[in-house]
Structure formats: C-alpha cells, structure tokens
Design a protein that fits this description.
The complex is a heterotrimer. Chain B is globular. In chain B, the strands form three sheets. Chain B has a three-stranded antiparallel beta sheet with strand order 1-2-3. A three-stranded antiparallel beta sheet of chain B has the order 6-7-8. In chain B, strands 4-5 form a two-stranded antiparallel sheet. Chain B is built from 17 helices and eight strands. Helix content of chain B is 51%, strand content 12%. Chain B folds into two domains: 7-39, no CATH class; 48-391, Cytochrome-c3 Hydrogenase, chain B. Chain C is an all-alpha fold. Chain C has one domain (74-336). A two-stranded antiparallel ribbon of chain C has the order 1-2. In chain C, β1 and β2 form a beta hairpin. The relative contact order of chain C is 0.14. Classes of the chains: A alpha/beta, B mainly alpha, C mainly alpha. Chains in contact: A-B, B-C.
Chain lengths: 159, 392, 337
C-alpha cells in the first residue's frame, strides 16, 4: 500500500522525489527540500496521511548536505506509516515549515531549531524550546561535545 | 470599557498542579484565560545526545527515566525499536512476549492510577488520591520483586527479558487484577456520580476529533474525542494481536470523557493481564541470538566462554546494519515512538523519542483559552503529562 | 425566678461572672479549635486508609501543641513589596470576628448565682443573629486585605474570589434564616432557643428543613470550607490569600478557619437544633451538636471535589437565593393561614 503512495508521489512530484529506500518494511522517501510543503500537503489531502507522528532533524556530519529533516507520517484510516526526508545544507540551513499542514509540527520544529539550528521559514513562533533562551550552540549536532562547551570530558566510566 | 487590562500570572515551574516543572504564562481577564503559553525544558537531560554516545544496551536505562510513571512502556518501546533495527523481532520467545505484554499493561494501570490520583487531587477530591496510590504501591512492589527497582525498572532486554519471573509473581498479579475492578468501582463511586465532579469536568477542555488529529493528540486523549485508534490493535507489536480487548472510545472529547475512557482502559488492561496469565508457559526468556543477547549469569560466572561472551558484548556491543526505523507503541499516555538510525556502529547514530506528553501538551493552549483558571488545572490533569518525557 | 444580674444591681459580681464566662468560652473555643485540627487529621486519615498523627504523645494527642510550637518558632516573613500594616492587620481581622461571634451563642439555660439569675451566654443581644451575620461578613475583610496586602497575584485572586463568594452567600444565608425569625418572632438567639423548647419536634430543623439546608450549605461557603474553599484552593491558587504568610500569622489564619467552623456549627445548632436542649446538661448538648456538625464538615472535606468559581456564583444567586426567598413566602403563607 505505501508503495502505491510512493508511486503516486513519484508521478505527481517527479522532480521532487530524490530517492526511496525500504528498510525493515518501512518506506523512506527523500524529497527536495523546496517542495516539502507541497509534498506534505499532497500526502495529507490525497494520500490520507493526516497524522504527523514525529518530526526531527539528523546531523550527518561530514556528508553534504549535512542535515536531514525527517517526517514520520501516519495514516489513521489505513494504519500505515511513511517517512519523508529532506536534506538541508549547512550553508542554507533552513526549510519551509509544515506547521501549516499539521499544527502538531509546531513544537517539533522548534525542537529541531533548538537542537540542530535548522530554521523553519514561516514558522509562527520559532524560539528555543528545551534549552534556555540564551543558549549558544545546537546540542544535538555531532560536533557539539557531549559534556557541553568549555568543559573537560568526563573522565570516569560512562556506563 | 475602553481598554481591557489583562493580568499575567506565572503558573509554575513551582506550582502544585503543573505535574512537575511545567511553566505556564497565563494572561487572565478576571479569571478567564485569554492566552496560555507553556514553557518547557526545565528537566532537559539530553537523553538523545547521551544515547548517541552509548552502546545500544547501555542506552536502555536512559529510557525508563523518560516517562518515569510508566518506565516499562518506555523500555518496551526502546527494545522493540532496537529489535526491529536488528531484524530479530520474530526471534523473541513466546514467554518473553507474554511477560512483556503483562508488564506493559500493569504499567498502563500504574500510570493511569497516578493520573487519576493527581487529576482528582487537582480538582480537590483528595481521598481518591490516597486510594489510587494505595493500589499503585502494589504494582510498585511487583516491580521491585521483578527488577529490584520500584520506578526505574530496566527489566526488558533487547531480545527478551533480563530475568525470569520470581516465584509467586503470577499469584501477586492474579490477586491484583482480581481486586482491581472493585477498586475502580470505589473510585467511580467517589467521582463519576458526584455532581461537583461532573460539573467540573463535563465540557471542560473540549477538543474535536479533527483538531485532535491536527494537533497530534494520541492515546486516551484522542480516543475520548471519538477517534478509534489504538496501536495495540492497529499496528500490533510484541504479540498484541493475540489478545482479546476492546479499544475504549468516547464521543464528546471533554475532560469527563477522558476520565471515563481511562477508567475503562484500566478494566481492559485487567482483561489483557488475565489472558497473559492464562498463556504464560515455561520456556526461554531470551532470544537464541548470542550476537545480541547477554549470556545467563551462571554461565558468565562459571565458564570462560560465557565470560568472554559477556565481555565482548558489553565492551563492543552489537552492530545493527545501517538503516533507520520508527517503532511506535501505545504507551499509557499515547503513542510513544522511537526513531532510530544505525550507521553500522555499536552506538545508535540517532535516537529520537516521540514522547506522547510532549505532543499532547501542545494542545493545552487551544484547549484552555477562553475558559477559567480552574479549568486550566483540570485540563493539565486530563492531558496526563509527565515532564520527564516532555523535556527528555 | 430572681432578678437578672446586671451592671446596676451588683457590678462587682457582674464583672466577675462576665469575666469567668468569657474566659471559659474562650478557653473551650481555643481547645476545640486546637483539637479540631487533630480531629480533622485523624478522621480524614482514617477515611483515607491512613492513621493520621501518631507520633507526638499518646495517639498523637500532642500534635496540635507541636504544630503550634512549630509555627510559633518559624521565621516570620513579610514580603518586601507587601503593604506592611495591612499585611499584619489582616490575620487579626479574620480571627477576631470569628471569636467575637461566639459571644451571643447561648450555651445553657439560666443559673442562679448570689441571688441573681445569670444567663449562660456572654451577651444576649436583641439583634443577636444580625450580629453574627455582621461578624461573618467582617471576616471577609481580613481575607481581601490579606490577598491585597501580600502583593502576590495568586493571593489577590484568592481575595477577589473570597469577596465575591462571601457577599453572594451572605445574602442567601441571611434570607434563609428570616423564616426562622418569622417563626420565633425574635432576633435574639435566646429567644430563638426558647421558641424551640419543649419537645424535640419543636426544633426548627423539622419545621424549616429547607432553611436548614440552605443555611448549612451557604455557611460552609461563607467559611471557605471544602467544597467551597476557592479562596485557598491550594491546587489552583497555591493557598490563595495566605500564600505569603508564615509563622504565627499563618497560624492565625489557620485558627480562624477552625474557629469559624465552630461558630457555624454553634449557630446552626442554636438556630435549628434547639441549642442547648437535649438529654444532657445544656453545655454538653450544645457541644455534642457542634461536634456533629464539625464532623460533617470534615467528612465533606474528605469527599467532595472543589466547585468552580462561576458554578459557585451560579449556585449562590440562582439556586440558594431563590430557594431562600421561596421559603420565606411559604413560611409567611403558612403563618398567615
């Protein structure tokens, strides 16, 4: 079933779909970041993916483009999952918000901004959410030290 | 009335009814809430960052500190996610699956008991609080028997369970679920028919089914709005498809419906636990997969092979093939999801937790704006939030 | 019956007797207040499968004293931004009216001392019941003042809630007992007790059940007890008007709450249950009735959730007030016919 959706998506947005991967029975579609709102609106309205489970960022340090924004979608009617990904480069570290498509994207996008520094264009309230408002740096980036900035690495056992 | 002045009050992070360190900035016109802005993050511990720097086994104890009122559900979601990443979901022995379901349902009751206790206390019925904690204590004792810890149980393992059920445990569970329906009647006797309770909860914190889906509500909060969706039935995991239970839904989507829905959910959990007890057969509790599962303790202590095996697994860990998966389970508070990426090393490349409370709390402003200050308390209670998993 | 003792016929004896009565009532009231806290904790404890205090003294009987000592030795904090005079004045303004009210409650029949008749009542005011209502109304100034003087938004909300609540419920409470005056044809509490003398069935609770219910509920609201404890509402307003209070000032609020419970119990017993009438010597009867009502109040605290502000107002204005008025009309009609 989700294959059918992917096929439909490829047909509709042939330029936007970068590639598709299936792993452990889960479909992942990578799309062009400029088309993310259009793709999401299409998936919500035409494919029934009316529920955004989760939205998060991933830092693939060393590869180009550096970041991925991951959207885990769910279809409440058919009970199926689909994952959409969009690559975001370090230089142009922003992507359009999908909070207009699903209101639930609001806080996860804020968290993504907070943790990775990926800006969401058009977001209604893009502030830090988990870290203090005056925090510097983006903690979940791979080049951010685990112990925090300007601190010695913990010398004891880590388990 | 040319200008309307509002008063801003700061509810929390130290407030008895914000269920932890939630801060709400409320703009009040008299006692009517004009605007509510939640501020979170006071309990942020960087669980996701920590998990990236630990091997898969060692990241497990981080998870039961997320929703500390339902630790076993968090553990379950995590081990299921790792098993899926490894591709060993089908290797889990039957006994381990049954015990997992049983403990997950006991955890659901435990979590719902704390919800009912605090929710009732917030609205002012303090006797229910004590009664619920009395029953919760029994589940805590079972946890202690099982894992040695009352809250941070860390009992499940990737591939099965850490150890078998102790002697007499099944009897404890049996006694508990036999008594539970009577206790539920007591709570209902104190609250459901009470005119004040009804007035305080009916029509309060209303959210329609469409809005609930749009804002991402899950769990009992979504089902009370009339959306018939339960991951245990719709995307079954760890053998839930074999059990016979009802998915509790309600129509009106207010606080009272969420209250009755959760009470009925506890009854359904009792039914599932009874079925678990009937199905419990002797057998292995860990998958027969030496590359993933730790050897039993007596082997480690008595044989050099076992010791080397343990040493290799603990120091090196196991390395799932590169890929990414998302595993959602029906935690007591809603959909708990783990999105995990493996890059082929022994540490998760990325572990993203989708905490149900985080998303549910997002609905608070739209549920309370326009209602009274006292309704804010009731709505926070009915959303059943835990700041441990919101802030992570 | 000998002549009534008064200031004119034997001033020294009068003052002595008066002081003795005041002292006795005051001491008894303080004792009840102290042990009401103990009783509340014990009773609610047992209702909630707990034990209540057990460690201080036998059965925890010294707990009120321990509590008092603890509060007494705590640091007395006055917030820097608070309005100091009002902040200090407020707890007294709550406590004093609560204690004064007891003065008009008769706690027994007449006794003869030194050839004069002495009523077992501190002051038999002709307008006794109005005095009670006035004093209960005065208590609210303390709460409002405390809420305002604390310079804390939660306290202020508590104070506002309290003002609105007491004003609305005072009306209903006052109106509900008008029917009692109509039957007794007096405002003096002694007179009302006399009107109920004779058989137990002369008690107004039987002839005025509606007035009894309305007055009881509105009184509970007036003294801010559960389920009408909105000004405090610790889970909403974090103790409301007394958030900023500590040490002895907090203890005064605490005492006032329990003193108000005693007063309400005493007034209801007097108005509707024949006051000191009953099978035992007068004072004991009255105390038993007071204890009964206090038990009911404690019981309610263990049972009920808290009502909401708008619902409280709705009940006060649209349920209890019309009921009280209706009761007056019915009573009037019955008397005339």
């Amino acid at each position: 079933m989700s294959q059918a959706v992917v096929a439909k998506l490829k047909q509709e947005f042939s330029a936007a779909v970068v590639n598709t991967v299936e792993h452990r029975g889960e479909m992942t579609v990578t799309v062009n970041k400029n088309d993310i709102v259009a793709v999401c609106t299409f998936l919500r309205d035409s494919a029934g993916y009316n529920f955004l489970c989760d939205l998060c960022g991933v830092d693939y340090l060393g590869s180009e483009p550096r970041f991925m924004v991951v959207y885990n979608l769910y279809n409440i009617e058919t009970k199926e999952r689909l994952r959409i990904k969009a690559a975001v480069g370090e230089d142009d570290c922003c992507i359009d918000t999908v909070s207009g498509v699903w209101s639930t994207a609001n806080w996860p996008e804020r968290e993504c901004w907070d943790m990775f520094g990926i800006a969401f264009n058009g977001h209604p309230d893009l502030r830090r959410i988990l870290m203090p408002a005056d925090w510097e740096g983006y903690p979940l980036r791979k080049d951010y030290p685990l112990q925090g900035p300007d601190r010695e690495l913990y010398q004891g056992r880590l388990s | 009335m040319a200008t309307k002045e509002t008063m801003t009050i700061n509810m929390g992070p130290q407030h008895p009814s914000t269920h932890g360190v939630l801060q709400l900035i409320l703009e009040l016109d008299g006692e009517t809430v004009v605007k509510a802005t939640p501020h979170i993050g006071f309990l942020h511990r960087g669980v996701e960052k920590l998990a990236e720097n630990r091997s898969y086994h060692k990241a497990l104890p981080l998870t039961d500190r997320l929703d500390y009122l339902a630790p076993m559900s968090n553990n379950l979601g995590y081990v299921l996610a790792v098993e899926k990443l490894l591709g060993i979901t089908h290797e889990i022995p039957q006994r381990a699956k049954v015990v997992r379901v049983m403990m997950a349902e006991l955890t659901r009751i435990k979590s719902h008991l704390v919800w009912l206790a605090t929710h009732a206390l917030d609205i002012g019925a303090m006797t229910v609080f004590i009664y619920c904690f009395r029953e919760r204590e029994l589940i805590m004792d079972m946890y202690e028997k099982l894992s040695g810890a009352r809250m941070t149980s860390n009992y499940f393992r990737v591939g099965g369970l850490s150890e078998d059920l102790p002697e007499g445990f099944e009897q404890d569970v049996k006694n508990f679920i036999d008594a539970m329906p009577g206790h539920l009647k007591t709570y209902e006797g104190l609250l459901t028919g009470n005119a004040i309770w009804q007035k305080r909860t009916q029509g309060v914190g209303y959210i329609s089914a469409e809005d609930a889906i749009d804002i991402g509500l899950t769990g009992p909060a979504l089902r009370a709005s009339g959306v018939d969706w339960d991951l245990r039935r719709d995307n079954p995991y760890t053998g839930y498809e074999e059990y016979d239970f009802e998915v509790v839904t309600r129509e009106r989507g207010d606080t009272f419906d969420r209250y009755t829905a959760r009470l009925d959910e506890m009854r359904e959990s009792c039914k599932i636990i009874q079925q678990c007890l009937d199905r419990l057969e002797d057998g292995p509790i860990l998958a027969d997969n030496p590359g993933v599962c730790l050897p039993p303790k007596e082997k480690v202590l008595n044989s050099i092979e076992g010791l080397i095996h343990q040493f290799k697994l603990v120091t090196d860990g196991f390395k799932p093939e590169p890929g990414e998966i998302y595993q959602g389970i029906e935690a007591p508070k809603g959909e708990l999801g783990y999105y995990m990426i493996s890059d082929g090393s022994a540490n998760p490349y990325r572990m993203k937790v989708r905490p149900p409370s985080f998303v549910n709390l997002q609905a608070l402003p739209q549920m309370v704006e326009g209602s009274l200050l006292a309704d804010v308390i009731a709505t926070i209670g009915t959303l059943d939030i835990v700041l441990g998993e919101i802030d992570r | 019956m000998p002549e009534m003792l008064s200031l004119s016929n034997d001033p020294i004896l009068f003052i002595a007797v008066m002081l003795a009565k005041i002292l006795a009532v005051f001491v008894v009231l303080l004792l009840i207040v102290a042990y009401a806290t103990y009783a509340e904790r014990k009773i609610i404890g047992h209702m909630q499968t707990r034990l209540g205090p057990t460690m201080t003294g036998p059965l925890g009987l010294l707990q009120p004293i321990a509590d008092g000592l603890k509060l007494f030795f705590k640091e007395d904090i006055i917030p820097a931004q608070a309005s100091k005079v009002a902040f200090i004045l407020a707890p007294m303004m709550i406590l004093v009216p609560a204690f004064i009210t007891v003065a008009v409650v008769p706690f027994g029949g007449d006794v003869v001392i030194g050839g004069y008749t002495v009523p077992l009542q501190i002051a038999d005011l002709d307008v006794g019941i109005l005095f009670i209502l006035a004093m209960e109304g005065l208590g609210v100034y303390g709460i409002v003042l405390a809420g305002w003087a604390s310079n804390n938004k939660y306290s202020l909300l508590g104070g506002i809630r309290s003002a609105a609540q007491v004003i609305s419920y005072e009306l209903a409470a006052g109106l509900s007992i008008v029917a009692v005056f109509m039957l007794a044809e007096t405002l003096s509490l002694r007179g009302i007790v006399e009107a109920q003398s004779g058989s137990m069935f002369n008690w107004f609770v039987f002839s005025q059940p509606l007035a009894f219910c309305v007055f009881f509920i509105t009184s509970v609201a007036e003294i801010n007890r559960v389920p009408f404890d909105l000004p405090e509402a610790e889970t909403e307003l974090v103790s409301g008007f007394c958030t900023e209070y500590s040490s002895m000032k907090y203890a005064l609020f605490f005492m006032a709450e329990y003193a108000n419970m005693v007063v309400v119990a005493a007034v209801i017993s007097t108005l509707f249950l024949g006051g000191p009438a009953g099978p035992f010597p007068g004072v004991i009867n009255l105390l038993l009735k007071i204890f009964f009502f206090m038990f009911v109040l404690i019981w309610m605290r263990a049972t009920f959730p808290r009502v909401r502000y708008d619902q409280l107002m709705f009940m006060g204005w649209k349920v209890f007030l019309p009921l009280a008025l209706l009761n007056i009309v019915i009573t009037g009609a019955v008397i005339v016919l």
